[in-house]
Amino acid sequence: MQLEFTPAVWQIWCLTALALFMVMAIEFDLLQRRIPNLLIVLMLLTGIALNTLGPANGREGLLAKFPGALGAGMACWGALTGLALFLPFYILRAFGAGDVKLLAALGSFLGPLEVINLSLCVLAAGGLLAMLRMLWAKNLQQVVSNIILILNAKREAGRGRPIQRISSADRIPFALAFGVGLLAYNGWRLVGGTRLIHF
To answer: If DSSP codes are grouped into helix, strand and coil, which group holds residue 60?
Structure first.
């Protein structure tokens, strides 16, 4: 059973839901430095539901020139792809678990191909915001010192020397990078831009 949406109306519903979820995620991350699991689950289920019940229209996806629901299977594949893309960063302790789950939830709206492209925009936005934060806080020296310590850590550990503790350089709430990356990528695609990576 499909909802009685035209593809354009369905697209507006999806983009509105995405915007609301992202505003909440950014607010939680700014205030509490975490993204609640309940918010992630609701976002994931909404993405799957909208892609299951929306108009197929060739199943082109939310950001296509002729938008159409992907179907439940592709929405789930999008979520799994998002999870797989950022899981290595979590293992390396570069990202928190909430960041990984947030990309998975976004994947349920966008599907696997779009979430791969979105992840590049999120990483670029994260790098840009980190540079701006670093310049604003004037802690460039601390960041460079941390990078040198990380690069030397393996060599020092191999020599049996204790590894110096790394001081925090005041990490940005990464949901901001998701918001900026999503806004930039969605804007690019909705004005007719092609995917950054094609398969």
So the answer is: coil
